[in-house]
Amino acid sequence: MDSFIYLDYQATTPCDQRVLEAMLPYFTQSFGNPHSDHELGQQAHHAVEQARAQVAELLGVMVSEIIFTSGATEANNVAIQGAVKYLLKQGNTARRVITVCTEHKTVLEIVHSLAEWGIEIVVLPVNHEGLIDLERFKEALKTPTLLVSIMAANNETGVLHPVEKLAQIAHEYGALFHCDMVQAVGKISSPSFQHIDLASLSGHKIYAPKGVGALYISRKPRVRLSPLFYGGYQERGIRSGTLAVPLIVGLGAACQILQQERHTENLRLGYYKRQLLEGLRKAIPMIKVNGSLVHSLPQCINLCFPGVQALDLFKKTPHLYLSTGSACTVSSFVPSYVLIAMGKSTEEAFQSFRLSFGRMTMQTEIQQVIDALSCAYEDIMAGR
What we know:
This protein is about 40% helix and about 10% strand.
């Protein structure tokens, strides 16, 4: 394969070699079912519980508040549908669920599916920076609300929502608060979970394998969920099925590495982001940042290149592995709904794309990216 520069860490990360090494014994040696009583089963069980503790430590929550899933999509479904289903069964008279228009498609589609249960769906708008208005949020909560679901960090722009404040407000109005933390875990300081009832995370965004994730479920105050499918009593009866021990071990190892290294890693990646933006602004003064720079992840930026289609830039720079937005919607050639919701025109959305760095990004690559994109932009503008 020719040399390339990977700039799509928001879509997925490579599995860290240390994570892989931690996983390997649980494929061929300690391969027992973690629910079996014999020694091999108990080896697997202890590995799962160690991983649960590693996830909990990274988040700063209790070990008993973590259950494992196949990824964030399942975690979001279990959290949102499970909470609403349980509250309805308990006779709760509220019939409203609130989310935000720039949420990941997973959350938006789950929330909209609740209309089949007679739930009123409220989707809040955002401003040009991708942030919601707190007064409008409070106004929406004045109608009795079952649950609010708002992400910590946007997957396309890296914009950060003040989830601690939002969760506190939701509690003041008697609503549960779910947070999709997929893009935020390990990349920002863990928020206080005092008012966050449910939170989802995914392994493959933090250098663990694909196919594993976790869901935080508050125990104080205790949040109860109805299971979405039935079978055994694994994971507190909320998520039945034999656990994928090697993947869970990998998730735990990834969380432990983040716990130890995230501070220095985030400082380094934040420096890369500033270096990239300064270099591109010098070469292309017309370039624009989509979303808040102040309230954003350290290693992600979404840029608009006026006058040039993003896909044309991609064709000129095939060695740069880039993405226009969410990997879950890239197959449909439509403008980013996130950017449109932020007030960008269709033309501006097609001129925009995301760049994201990660653990394997080298500083020397940043100048190469600046040079490649600025040269490609100049060529296209000149008709070459």
